[in-house]
Amino acid sequence: MPGSNQTPPRIEEFIIIGFPGFRDTDSQTTIFGSLLAIYICILLGNLLIVIIFLHDKNLHSPMYILITNLALTDILVSSATVPKLLSILRSGSGVISFAACFLQMFSYYSMTNVESFLLVLMAYDRYLAICNPLHYVTLTSNSLVLRQIGWCWACAFLIVIVPLSPSVALAFCGSNIVNHFFCDHSALLKLACSDTTINNYAGLCLVICVLIFPLLCILFSYTKVIISVLRISSNDGRLKAFSTCSTQLMVIAIFFLVASGVYISNRVPNTSADVRIFAALIQTILPPLMNPIIYCIRNAEIREKMSRKTSPCICSAIHFLYCG
């Protein structure tokens, strides 16, 4: 028959479903309102850290440079996916072009990589400060930390390019419905009508580079820190040393535990799509939401700067948003 050997046309756009089990108007309105409030808190909290850092030269030290860069990364991570999801929930249309889909995927994974690498740098900074306090000033500096951050960004982009580049060349000629809340790599691979073996292995390498290897580096650093702290003879000294790194440990735990949960949920058979999608959404919004609470509200130095540089009304409003 004429035309029987013709291949289906290449997909030019995708349709992001969002949450398959919550397609009714009431559910989408509830999710939209909750997500919008969370996104506003993420923007306000992380922007506040950036503004305080820029306006106070006393905070221009390696540790606070890293905290400020983490705040910027949190804004970019959430902004890569949340605005589009809000638009989908509001309008009901999840249409996204082929190029925009892969741009969103690249942006999200790049920023997630940057955050993972920044947490490694922050763990290393605490290692130097606690294990080598007398040489801390000579071992690190603002210019050195800025160069390290630059390498984090460069490596994050390069690591993403390797697994995602083959995905662009895949043939998408069947369904164009993405069963996720954004253009997730694994969700897109399910739509490809060509062999995705290489892509799956590339995705595994990405997980190793972004989750497992950084986590091992962090665990090594904090093992050294704990050993060093336990050798301190003074109880007050031990408490002070633990308090300086406990904040970072909370941030690290939130990021890696949530990310590990998402990775495991994607590989547990018979897990509902909504559970996997909500787990990925929590990974996107929970660390950016919690980091300002941990670093800004619980950090006495930043809290003092915040109270002096913002009006009592604004300060109270921010405290209400984050602490209730």
UniProtKB/TrEMBL annotation:
User: What is any one of the record's Gene Ontology cellular component terms?
Assistant: plasma membrane
| Taxonomy, superkingdom | Eukaryota
PANTHER family in UniProt: G-PROTEIN COUPLED RECEPTOR, ODORANT RECEPTOR-RELATED
SUPFAM superfamilies linked to this entry: Family A G protein-coupled receptor-like
The family database entries (Pfam families) matched by this protein are listed as: 7tm_4
Family in the record: Belongs to the G-protein coupled receptor 1 family.
Q: How does it sit in the membrane?
A: Multi-pass membrane protein
- Gene Ontology terms for molecular function: G protein-coupled receptor activity; olfactory receptor activity
Q: What is this protein called?
A: Olfactory receptor
- Give residue ranges for domain G-protein coupled receptors family 1 profile: 45-295
Q: Show the stretches that span the lipid bilayer.
A: 31-55, 61-82, 94-111, 117-139, 151-178, 198-220, 241-265, 277-297
Q: What CDD domains does the record tag this protein with?
A: 7tmA_OR
Q: Which UniProt keywords apply?
A: Cell membrane, Disulfide bond, G-protein coupled receptor, Glycoprotein, Membrane, Olfaction, Receptor, Sensory transduction, Transducer, Transmembrane, Transmembrane helix
Name the species this protein comes from. Erpetoichthys calabaricus
Query: Where would you find this protein in the cell?
Result: Cell membrane
